[in-house]
Design goal:
About 30% of the residues lie in helices and about 40% in strands. It is built from 2 helices and 4 strands, in the order βαββαβ.
Length: about 100
């Protein structure tokens, strides 16, 4: 299974807005596309910014476009400092 990790920075003052927008967006994605999604945040603040992490699993090949539309609909980009950075990881079968 593949997992998509997306991290970004947002001002500490915007934490409640970011959390509300991402959790709402992820709930909609779970409902409409049946995928696993959750949100994480680093506990520390650096230079007035939190680092946030969205995690997705069980998505289809067209998920990138679906996610871009969901981010736009959630009006998330105005809250972000810099860009959203995506990393894709896959599970590795254990050695026998």
């Amino acid at each position: 299974m593949e997992h998509l990790y997306i991290y970004f920075k947002a001002a500490e003052a915007d934490a409640s807005t970011v959390q509300a927008r991402v959790t709402s967006m992820q709930a909609r994605l779970r409902q409409e596309h049946g995928l696993a999604a959750h949100l994480q945040r680093r506990p520390q603040v650096q230079d007035g910014l939190h680092t946030w992490m969205e995690v997705y699993a069980g998505f289809s090949t067209d998920f990138e476009a679906i996610l871009q539309n969901a981010v736009a609909d959630a009006e998330l980009l105005p809250c972000i400092q810099g860009g959203r950075h995506a990393e894709l990881f896959m599970d590795i079968a254990p050695c026998a």
